Amino acid sequence: MEICINFAKNLVMPRNFSFFLDDDSAELVSRYEKYLTGADSGYFDVEEMERIVEYYLAFGRTKDSLLAVELGKRLHPSSSALDLKRAKIYLTTGDTSKALRILSHLIEDSDPEIIYLKIEAFVKLERTQEAFELARELIENETDDIDTLCVELAVVFMSAREFDLTLEILKIGEEYNPKNLDLLFDIAFCQEQKTLFEDALLTYKRILDIDSYQNEAWFNLGQVHFLLKNYEEAIEAYDYALAINDSDNLALFQKAHAYYQLGQYHRAINIYVEYAETVQEKWQVWLYIGESFEKIENFAKALYYYKMSYAEMKDNYEALIGIAVSLLELEQFEESLEYIYEALKMNNEMADAWIYLAEAKIGLGEYQKALEAYHQAVSIDPNQPDSLLAMANIYMDNADFNTALKYYELAYSYDPTLEFIELFIAVATYYIGDFVKTATFLELAIHRNLDAAKLFLEFCPDAKEKFKMIIGQAQ
User: Fold this and answer.
1) pTM here?
2) Could you tell me if residue 233 is inside a domain?
């Protein structure tokens, strides 16, 4: 059983190109809403209607914002500013084609906000090259804060996972201001998405050269090292993140994962336990602790934590399998069946549950039922050399040498390094009477392990004379 978790902490946060709410917006909206109910009368100029629309947009109330635009257009039918707000609402609600039509008919087509919204519309319509050309045009016409503009534009292209174009835009901003931390974080994010992990490492190190107290940069540096399997470097980065913010429990959790990957299971357990104290929902961390105890073959402790995980989260296939494995290792075969059957009820399309059912049945001496379970497992996933080997052994014990050979050869085709696999093939072919193949595989078996000759004679005591030359090589 193996559990692997990755966390993505470095998320793209949306930014607004031209959005503000002043202190009077709530009062203005209150007056507007009284006007709608007839409880107040008055007049709203264009600027006031714009502020009302923006207020509703800020809180995701797109229907109210669209109603405000409609009222504003009745009051100010020639207002292009309100047309712009309508386009913005359509972009928010997904009516991108409508938004682009409005934007294309606005007279002030050189206005930066109009261009920005056109870029967003083109990206949403998958016309990314047109969007990129407009973005370059917008950047070229900007004289101040080019890096900030590039960060704003990058968000639009990142939302469409256009990471190559995003990086081109961000690189322009980087030339203008190589110390803009928001920009550098976005560059690192794009590099991670493009699996340019070495480049991302360098970018995070640049961020830390500028500000060594950037907790997020240390955490993300650790994440990239983790992905590159540089677990010791990852732990060092997580330690720096925790030194800056000792309540960063994700850094603590990932540090435990890194120790697990290094095979330092006792350290991993201690940190998992520390992490568990920081979260209310603990079932997942109990799984990791259980697996760590399983790795050090302390199956009683593993069983305890797997059961804790299952008690907290009943819809928990991994915990059921962990309990079953622990009970099998403790030779409590009958008890394991309850959890295996529960796992199969939850998901009978997973080969591992069928394999553990087979192992439980073998432990109970029910070999035919074990075979049935193994057949289910290999029907789901044929690449199961250990299961195929176990099946062959059962057939061999039943003196069904032809079927045993079939499964030995299948197992050998998937994994020729299985211990004594050539020896088992030699034994099966001997009893079938295919002595040429017996000689071939007996030689291979002895070449890998000299004890194979002795074992072969234990299985086939009458074969000594026929294969004395081959057996003699091992003596």
Assistant:
1) 0.77
2) yes
